[in-house]
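Handout for the seminar on molecular recognition.
Each group receives one record of this type.
Step one: identify the two inputs.
Step two: read the structure output and locate the region that could contact pyridoxine-5'-phosphate.
Step three: write two sentences on what you found, then compare them with the reference statements printed after the record.
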Amino acid sequence: MNEPLLGVNIDHIATLRNARGVDYPCPIEGALICEQAGASGITLHLREDRRHIRDADVYEMAQRLKTRMNLEMAVTEEMLGIALKVRPAWVCLVPEKRQELTTEGGLDVVNLPNFQAFIHSLQQAGIQVSLFIDPDLHQIDAAIALGADAIELHTGTYAHATLQNDQTKIDHEIKRIKQAAAYAQANSSLLVNAGHGLTRDNVAAIAQIDGIHELNIGHALIADAVFMGLESAVKAMKAAFTEGKMINN
Ligand code: PXP
């Protein structure tokens, strides 16, 4: 089994910066530390309300990253225009609601109007496209039909079950994610990523699913960094992929 890559989501460094309206801590500096500590890529979510990452962060980061940028964004014309200017290696399309604390569910790629054209515009500019979806076979079928390059399976329900110590739900969710990953691999050349709500305590069961290419992790890793420093937090998260506790039966 190949260990998945770690993509670090650095949005919460910007959250901390914006809380004071100053220019530190700098998310770009944070991203460079993560890369040096072993992150394979940097994920950042330019939200429509700009609550953490701002346009200037995206443009500067595009110049300075050594690995690759995974720009999370909503399916809007404004975001398409920005992505076409920035040309990140990857765009991950996510649903967005103004009131949510974080991305609450997967994108419903079965029912989005004009979606194929949106994806093609990105791909024609040399950007690879990932779709953040629930581990649901209908969504995967649609992602294949749309010609996406990758899917990112939403692990939020699993992560929530681990916080509640609900073993029945944990087992059920791991099974769903395993089935979704196996289905995508058997039926397409999609890369299969996963993320949301992953922590050093719950990541091993997901990291050890066959064929998961990359895990995108933000909040828990930045929270670890408050106590252990960012470099150590990246290393500790990677170690937890294999050494973390397995919380499924
Ligand atoms: N992947 C996607 C598509 C997300 O929207 C987020 C949250 O911004 C993450 C991964 C990271 O989630 P978390 O911050 O809970 O680790």
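Reference statements: The mean pLDDT is 95. The first helix runs from residue 11 to 20.
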